C-alpha cells in the first residue's frame, strides 16, 4: 500500500519555522533566567539583580505546577473523548 504524497505550501513552512523559533527562543530565555543568571556576577541592571537574588522561584514552582498539569490532563482527556465520539 503506497501512501499519498503530501505537499507543503510556503505558508505552512513559514508558520512551522516561526513556531519552532519562538519556542526555542522562549525556552533558552527561561533557561538563562533560571540557571545561567545565578552564575554571573552582580551587575547594575535591576532585572539581572532580581533574577540573581530570587529565592522564591523554586518554592512556588512545584505547587503551581500541580494545577497546571491537572488542567492539561483534563483538556487532553476531553480532546480525546471529542475525537473518539466525533
Describe this structure in words.
It comes from Brassica cretica. With 86 residues, the protein is mainly α. Helix content is 70%, strand content 0%. The protein is built from three helices and no strands. It has helices spanning 10-34, 46-52, 57-84. It is flat and about 60 Å long. The relative contact order is 0.05. The model has no long low-confidence stretch (mean pLDDT 85).
- The low-confidence parts are none
Note the main sheet. Answer: none
Structural class: mainly alpha
DSSP summary: helix tally: 3
Radius of gyration: 21 Å
State the gist of this model.
By secondary structure, the protein is mainly alpha-helical. It has helices spanning 10-34, 46-52, 57-84.
Secondary-structure topology with pairs:
Layout: H1 10-34, H2 46-52, H3 57-84
Q: Can you give keywords for this protein?
A:
86 residues; 3 helices; 0% strand; flat
Amino acid at each position: 500500500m503506497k501512501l499519498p504524497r503530501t505537499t507543503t505550501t510556503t505558508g505552512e513552512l513559514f508558520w512551522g519555522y516561526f513556531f519552532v523559533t519562538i519556542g526555542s527562543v522562549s525556552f533558552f530565555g527561561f533557561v538563562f533566567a533560571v540557571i545561567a543568571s545565578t552564575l554571573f556576577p552582580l551587575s547594575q541592571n535591576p532585572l539581572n539583580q532580581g533574577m540573581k537574588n530570587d529565592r522564591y522561584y523554586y518554592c512556588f514552582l512545584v505547587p503551581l505546577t500541580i494545577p497546571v498539569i491537572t488542567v492539561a490532563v483534563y483538556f487532553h482527556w476531553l480532546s480525546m473523548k471529542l475525537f473518539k465520539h466525533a
